[in-house]
Design the sequence.
């Protein structure tokens, strides 16, 4: 069965500092990987996705993620965070490309210090 | 107008009551999904549907049922609600692109409290 692990429940970063959120997955075939963000009281917004090709993918809001098959990882990065980035971040893996639904990690809560 | 809408947005109900959560979409997508979100657990798939004749159980379907009334409508029912079904429920839709990629679009969520 597929699974996603986000090792960090909470992360605190100073505004302007760089950010890396970790995601490890377990999946038998080629994984389809996603990062979503959920702001307080809001729904989920897709930040970026990886299906194939270039292992470094660019997303919205200045985020990027790198797929590393050898490490079963898909870490999310941002060079300089803004206070508005404070939110819950979810990594997910999709079976059938996501057509059969997504398996989510438990999320990482990002806190931004002024 | 939002592409994926959910009604109601908030609902408080009592143990043992039957409740239905509704989802509608204007994206023209074939596939629809129901997830629940619990604090510290992320989102978990309840049911998904490929079309009106195709319904599939997800990871946590026990205690739930669904109905795909039309391509654009997908309802989630709790036949006899219990307190541990208190959660935030999300509907999502998806469609394939020419490359074979899928992308899911989420509704705003329904916060359900069972007392």
Sequence:
């Amino acid at each position: 069965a597929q699974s996603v692990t986000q090792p960090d429940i909470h992360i605190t970063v100073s505004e302007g500092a760089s950010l890396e959120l970790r995601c490890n997955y377990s999946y038998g075939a080629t994984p389809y990987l996603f990062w979503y963000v959920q702001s307080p009281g809001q729904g989920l917004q897709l930040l970026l996705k990886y299906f194939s090709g270039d292992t470094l993918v660019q997303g919205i809001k200045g985020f990027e993620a790198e797929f590393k098959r050898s490490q079963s990882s898909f870490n999310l990065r941002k060079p300089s965070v803004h206070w508005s980035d404070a939110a819950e971040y979810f990594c997910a893996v999709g079976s059938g490309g996501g057509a059969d639904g997504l398996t989510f990690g438990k999320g990482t809560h990002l806190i931004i210090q002024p | 107008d939002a592409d994926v809408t959910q009604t109601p947005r908030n609902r408080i109900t009592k143990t043992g009551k039957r409740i239905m959560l509704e989802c509608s979409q204007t994206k023209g997508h074939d596939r629809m999904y129901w997830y629940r979100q619990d604090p510290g657990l992320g989102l978990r798939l309840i049911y998904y549907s490929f079309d009106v004749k195709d319904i599939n159980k997800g990871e946590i379907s026990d205690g739930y049922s669904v109905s795909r009334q039309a391509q654009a409508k997908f309802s989630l029912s709790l036949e006899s609600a219990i307190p541990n079904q208190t959660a935030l429920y999300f509907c999502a839709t998806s469609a394939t692109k020419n490359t074979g990629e899928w992308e899911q679009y989420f509704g705003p969520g329904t916060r359900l409290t069972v007392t």
Remarks:
- The interface with chain B takes residues 4, 9, 32, 34, 36, 42-46, 49, 51, 90, 92, 94, 96-107 of chain A (CB under 8 Å).
- Chain A has a mean pLDDT of 92.
- The two ends of chain A are 41 Å apart (CA to CA).
